[in-house]
Amino acid sequence: MLNILGKRSGPAAFCDHISRRKMLQVGAIGTFGLSLPNLLRAEAAGLTHPAARSKKSVILVWMHGGPSQLDTFDMKPEAPSEFRGAFKPIHSNVPGIDVCELLPEHAKVMDKCTVIRSFSHGNGDHWAAAHWMLTGRLGATGNDRKPRYPSMGAVASHLLGPTQHGSLAAVNMNDGGFGFHGASWLGVSYNPLQCGSFSYGNEAGVLPAANANDFALRDGLSESRLMNRISLRQQLDGLKQQIDAERSFDQMDAAEQQAIDLVLSGKVRKAFKVDEEDAGLREKYGPGWGEQALLARRLIEAGVRYVSLNTGYFDDHSNIGPALKDKLPRHDKAVGVLIQDLADRGMLDDTLVVVAGEFGHTPRINGNAGRDHWPQAQSILLAGGGYKHGQIIGATNDKAEYPTDRKIGVEDFCAIVYRSMGLAIEDTVMDLSGRPTQLVPGGEVPAELI
Fold first, then answer.
1. What is this structure's pTM?
2. Would the N or C end of the chain have less CB density within 10 A of its end CB?
3. Secondary structure letter of residue 431 according to DSSP
4. H or E stretch including 396?
5. CA 69 to each of CA 201, 270, 313, 349, 379: distance values in angstroms, whole numbers, following the listed order
6. Would you state the pLDDT for residue 37?
């Protein structure tokens, strides 16, 4: 087992004060997103999905805790003050599409984006809603948090693999989603590489493993720490040297050896060297989440199929104004600059950028100057992915309480993500009993996007 421990700067509690585990555990070969052994075997047997040879990929920016629709993309400036909140709308580069004043980088790229204002699902349980959104099925709840179904990223890892040989299929930064970014019963080899801090509260996020305090190989490799509090590149160098010196993988089959060699020597490791980027571009992205968004782009370039990045904890039950004034500008640079950067490089059409959380927040501000859970309405942002953009889909009433037009549900959301990678909801994976299971039990891609 290879464990990467994410450092926390303070106590981590959700709205019900339940602490998170600080440790990210990834199984031995699955550690580096090594679905590669299985992919290599599948390719040899001719079992890969027809879309596996495509370059289509996804970057999911997950706003853990749930973004407020009234403070992002569905502002109601004419509503009473207890609804409209502290911020004003600004015009974007698309007439008629206004965004929050804290999102100026988003405003510059709205011609490349679609906002779904009418997303709704009705489940206000963090765990249940996140599981539903990330896997396409209900299962876990706040009282029973075990993942019941593989995430969309894990399914893509299983059916498609990376977009380039010698790469990883999936990477998750900063966790988010209560562990539901994982593979569940598909198996640990389809788990994403998990790295980075948990990034709750006011934490800005750090480069993956920059705060690691342990990086230990176990199960026959070494019980001692290889390296401590050093860069990921140095850790991987040390890991490769340890493997070469001890010849610990001599008993692995050819596919596993090939996978290890591809990852430790290849383009993915180089992707983590963000300091090779132009200083001006790095400044545009900014530190923390921005630097991680830049890394997400580099990982896509290096052949990773599915990257998820959590940009904080947006469950602001109190003092939402100051909280968003701190978090949204950093989130804005991460997302807005990423979309423009992908477009400038000709990558956006092949890369879906999707920004969402598990639900929206209450239109009426509560007695603690915050907003509570509100799954009846959420605004979701899409960019790229081969879809039509520069538009709004759906609408809510005058207080952003519920959809009044073109309601979009969870299954539709998952259908959008899957289609961007060349998968269909009718595609299947085998469950533990060996029965084919459809990716999503229903849903369709909105016609406005096609």
1. 0.82
2. C
3. -
4. strand 395-396
5. 19, 37, 15, 26, 5
6. 61
